[in-house]
Structure formats: structure tokens, C-alpha cells
């Protein structure tokens, strides 16, 4: 387990280490617009049509200011230059990949959030966020379609001696037909994130709403909960123990959801998926408890091998994905081996993305139509 966790951390860092500066950079087009994630009325940060990001911070007493990009600053820094009026301004050395990116400000060695933008939980803290418009952003856009609900639940957890929180997505049809029951996907976040990530950063609810409205999927429920039970700080992932969380998920959360929502409460209609650390959790728990889940999905979260799965008859689907700058060959080879062993296995590689949410948004979009087909 320790080697598995350390490997995932290394993957996150390596896949996120983008050098924004290229050998020959194109001329920057001056069509910058405020990021869609900005606070109301705030002009910065801004992005342009090429994917460059521009930052403007008012900090007249500061001596240095760097924008640290990526989860925990793993994407490198953009130094800002101080103007005569005491404000700081700067543009990334090169374009950023499409999609959502965490960032924070390093001011005179201290870590702060950008007051111009919204905050998102990542890096075990609330981080600033910026959105680089994607060519395929339509599938998670807010549209005039029937919308489901994302509601907070507090469920009792005897094993942790507290009440724990989860968010539950129910499709738009849930409140209309009281006789209908639904399959359930248990969807886990990544390291340093929490149960808000898939709705806030991932737009899972909008992806579902749009696909249901287009008739691409049959409606199902999604449950998103915090994937840890012990207080582990950034960099201490190797100390994480999954067994207590498995107890929370299997013995406490699932029974609560089945008792309080109209679920189809059996193994064939229950799936588990997760990104990064959530993929590790999915891998471990689905193998340990094949009686609970029938659909497995690892999103930048490792692979399955045929030898790991003791009863092939219990597995309806194995889905494995990653970004093209991660480990696409490993993902594809793993799925080929699973298919040769007789499993219904599918691979997906998100083009031109790394260990970040655009990879996982696209992964959910590809995964959802494959779930609960029978």
C-alpha cells in the first residue's frame, strides 16, 4: 500500500511539472478576458484565446510576488513585476492546457489566495482557481435543460464517532416519479481535495444533466464523500490508511444512502470510481469487497490486472483513464490484458491534458454512458 501511494504522488508531481516556456513562443494575442471563475466584478485573472493567463495583484508593500500554478504549486511559478502604483502584473511564459487549474500567490515567502478569483478545496486547503476555456467545454456547460439536485447529507458514523458529510446528486426525474429507483455511482475525489471537488471543480452534476437531457445515459444517482478518516497533511500521503475509510463507505454511508434515497440497493446497480487517490481507494475497496460493486473506474488512479480479480462473473465493467501526458501506454496495455482475459474493459485517454480536472471531466463523460447499461 505504501508503495502504491508513493507511486501516485510521484505520478501527480511528474505529470504536473509543465514547463510553460517553450523554445519558440508565438506572439501573445491581446484578447484577454476575465476568467469565468473570478469573483463578481473582478477583472483579473484574465485568459486569452491562446491559453495564456495574466494576473494583477495589488500589494504595494510586497517585495516579491509569484503565482504558483497547479496542485500545491507543482506546475511552476510565474513571477509578477511591480508597477509604479504598487500593483503587480505578469503573464504566464506560455499557454496553459485547457480546463481548470489550482493556483496560489507566494508573497514574500508567504502563501495567499488571489482575492480576484473563487476558491476551491485542493492541496489540503482552499486554493484559487482559474479556468482556461476548452474546445469541448460544451459537455459541462450550464444549459437550459432539466437540472438535478446536489444536496448535502450528514450521516452517522459510529466508527469515527462523528457525523460525516456527503453530497448526493439526484437527477431531475428523481422528484417527479416517486416510484422509480436508481443505480448509484460512488465517486471519489483526489488527494488534498474533499467531497466538494466533483461538483465545484468537476461539474459532475452539469455533465449528468446534459447527458440525460440528450438521451445519452439513463439517470443514476452519484454520491460524493470525503475519502479520508485521519488528519494527514500535504506530503504525508504515505501515512494514509484505507481500512477506516472502507468501513465508513461500506458499513455506514451505503446503508444510509439506501435507506434514505430510492436506490436499487444491490451489487449489479452499484459502481465505484475515483480520480488519483480516489482511484487507489476504488482499486483497493472493489477488490476487497466484490460483493458490493459491479462497475469499477480508475481515473488517473492506477490499473487493474486480471490476476487481481478473483471472480470475473461479479464484474460488469472496468474503466481506466488518464491524460495523454500521464501514462497512456500503461492504461491501454492494462485494458488489452483485461479484455484478453474476458473482462468488459474500456480505456480512455484525454488528449493534451495532465493530472488535472479536464482529464477527469472528460473521463466521467466517457464513463457515464457505460454504466448500468443492462
Put the structure in a nutshell.
By secondary structure, this protein is of the alpha+beta class.
Q: Can you offer a commentary on this structure?
A:
The chain is α+β, with helices and mostly antiparallel strands. The chain folds into two domains: 2-133, Immunoglobulin-like (Sandwich), CATH 2.60.40; 139-370, Alpha/Beta hydrolase fold, catalytic domain (Rossmann fold, 3-Layer(aba) Sandwich). The protein has helices at residues 2-16, 197-200, 204-213, 243-260, 277-288, 328-340, 357-367; strands at 33-34, 46-47, 53-58, 65-69, 77-79, 81-82, 87-91, 99-107, 110-112, 119-122, 125-132, 149-157, 162-170, 184-188, 221-225, 270-275, 295-299, 317-323, 345-350. The strands form three sheets. Strands 12-13-15-14-16-17-18-19 form an eight-stranded mixed sheet. Strands 4, 5, 8, 9, 10 and 11 form a six-stranded antiparallel sheet that branches. Strand 16 (270-275), helix 5 and strand 17 form a beta-alpha-beta unit. It is globular, with a radius of gyration of 21 Å.
Structure characteristics:
374 residues, Immunoglobulin-like, Rossmann fold, eight-stranded mixed beta sheet, six-stranded antiparallel beta sheet
Number of strands: 19
CATH architecture annotation name of the largest domain? 3-Layer(aba) Sandwich
**CATH level-1 class of the largest domain:** Alpha Beta
Q: What is the typical, i.e. mean, pLDDT?
A: 91
Radius of gyration: 21 Å
- Distance N to C terminus: 34 Å
Number of separate domains: 2
